[in-house]
Amino acid sequence: MSGKPKLHYTRGRGKMESIRWLLAAAGVEFEEEFIETKEDLEKLRNDGVLMFQQVPMVEIDGMKMVQTRAILSYIAGKYNLYGKDLKERAWIDMYVEGTTDLMGMIMHLPYQPADTKEKNLALIIERATTRYFPVYEKALKDHGHDYLVGNKLSLADVHLLEAILMAEECKPDILSAFPLLQAFKGRTSNIPTIKKFLQPGSQRKPPTDEKLVAVVRKIF
Fold first, then answer.
1. How many structural domains compose the chain?
2. Residues 194, 185: Cα–Cα separation, whole Å
3. Which of 43, 71, 93, 171 is the most buried (most CB within 10 A)?
4. What is the pLDDT of residue 1?
5. SS3 of 111, please?
6. How many helices (H) and strands (E) does the chain have?
């Protein structure tokens, strides 16, 4: 067995995508075992490797880890992307919870009925531009650093870049009123490990389409 983390999830982004992002940003190679059918998921459940019968699940350092936040916290701590002390971790966690809420709204959009999609898309754009992005813009302005916490790349920055790119898929000019976030996006996108992950052919997953929605509905 290789020492690479092994990720168990569907071929979609879902809750695993932030884990893929963080591993890639940390420069860690990983393997993926895709759940393609209901039987694949049942096998994992029957093997007793899913603590709460749910994925994502990541095999890492001899553990079979579940629960997205626990996995992200572990990887961030292991690869020095989780601040230098308890206070910095608290800030990172607060920022990450915010981007998680925004990304959750975007993630669920393709699974919603067609007649509510337009309304929900408008809500995402409204929340991104009035509730979430102003917080990160202000944080960068107030401390004048390149990164959100401790002037060093952390889980909070990786998560924010992922959220920005997802929001831009909803509305390409969504950052038009946020010059510091535009600059942040440019800087973080060019960090070599992240730049590599953003190239075609990487393990980054494309936006969820109708075909994937149909597959996911059959599995879960």
1. 2
2. 11
3. 71
4. 44
5. helix
6. 10, 4
How does DSSP assign 113-164, residue by residue? -HHHHHHHHHHHHHHIIIIIHHHHHHHHHHH--SSSSTTS--HHHHHHHHHH
Residue 196's pLDDT is what? 98
| CATH number (domain holding residue 36) | 3.40.30.10
- For 50, half-sphere exposure in the C-beta direction (CA atoms, 13 angstrom radius) is 18
Q: Which residues of the chain have pLDDT under 70?
A: 1-2
Residue 175's φ and ψ, nearest 5 degrees, are -95, 10
pLDDT at 2: 58
Quote the tokens at residue 214.
């149909």
Rg (CA), the chain: 17
Amino acid letter at 107? Answer: M
The tokens for 23 are: 């591993």
pLDDT tens digits, 180-189 = 999 999 999 9
Beta carbons within 8 Å of 71's beta carbon, 6+ residues apart:
19, 56, 58, 60, 65
DSSP codes of every residue in 30-84? -EEEE--SHHHHHHHHHTT--TTS-S-EEEETTEEEESHHHHHHHHHHHTT-S-S
Which residue segment(s) compose the domain that 93 sits in? 86-190
